[in-house]
Amino acid sequence: MKFSSIVSGLALASAAVASPACKRGKYPTTTVAGIEVIDTPIVRAVRTFIETYYKDYQPYLTNHLYRTWLFGAAAINSNATLKAELDLEVHAVGSMLHDLGWDIKPHSPYVTADYSFEIDSGRFAMEWIKNWTAINGGADEWDEVRLQKVNLGIMLQTFIGAPDFVFLDSQWITKSVGFEFPVGESPLIGSTNYNNIWAAYSNDTLFRGTNYTFTNMAVYKPEATYKTFLSDFGNNYVPGYNSTDYTLFALIQAGLDGEVAEYPDVPFVQKIPPNGGNPLM
Ligand SMILES: *[C@@H]1O[C@H](CO)[C@@H](O)[C@H](O)[C@H]1NC(C)=O
Ligand SMILES: *[C@@H]1O[C@H](CO)[C@@H](O)[C@H](O)[C@H]1NC(C)=O
Ligand SMILES: *[C@@H]1O[C@H](CO)[C@@H](O)[C@H](O)[C@H]1NC(C)=O
Ligand SMILES: *[C@@H]1O[C@H](CO)[C@@H](O)[C@H](O)[C@H]1NC(C)=O
Ligand SMILES: *[C@@H]1O[C@H](CO)[C@@H](O)[C@H](O)[C@H]1NC(C)=O
Predict the structure, then answer these.
(1) With a 6 A CB cut-off, is 244 part of the ligand 5 pocket?
(2) Does 60 have pLDDT greater than 90?
């Protein structure tokens, strides 16, 4: 157990009135793996949660969630203008709760059969925050907008490009997740920070854990995976799994066959504009 787990218990007791600890003014900070980070009661509580909850079955997640937060914080710290604009508490909480839907514990409160892990992670992060503030105070500061900033940043984590046009606070949650899957090191983070973060929170089993988790989702909730990239894990690794008949392509093709059968005599001639139908020209 990390030191933060111990202090957070003490902090919770004195957290009756949490300050809006973000872009609206000063907030307490601490240093983790050499990175200056926000240090409010809810952030400490989230840290304690990810340090303890995943111990038994998914310890690589603790490290992944810490790295996500710290890579993001390091990048944000490198730009004072950006740092002043962002709600760092939303960033911290969202970054560290972004994989709630990966849970495999019995009767998990963070997983449903009907929704993808991205959606479950976002919605249950909002619920996690509401539950925490109901007990520890601060519910007034977590209005619907802040909750939805967390939700969007988490929900859009695998939806490439989409986060570019949502709240900046949400964008930085998604961007921070992206730092875990680098195409070279980001200059916003810098090699000293990378090395400090990797040394404190090793990435040595992230991809094996991910491979198991994604394949397992294709086993226990195949319907929620057929139309997503998780179908590749199912088709490759899960005996009896076959997404072919459930893809959006299959759905449209079935509609196409039905339409042609229903309206066989209606001609369809697609007129082609001078750009050849390429709206980018
Ligand atoms: C710093 O952040 C601001 C606000 O988001 C942005 O406009 C600017 O381009 C950033 N500067 C650099 C050097 O990335
Ligand atoms: C929130 O609290 C309720 C009541 O204890 C519980 O049933 C639910 O699972 C909690 N949700 C989360 C996301 O922790
Ligand atoms: C994992 O961490 C090591 C340093 O311990 C680093 O060299 C490597 O690039 C990291 N891998 C990824 C995918 O980030
Ligand atoms: C990836 O997961 C599949 C399904 O569990 C497993 O068969 C395969 O060995 C895993 N790959 C590695 C390198 O762990
Ligand atoms: C998957 O289902 C499709 C359509 O039913 C079928 O054509 C294909 O052979 C199946 N693939 C495998 C690997 O069973």
Answers:
(1) yes
(2) yes
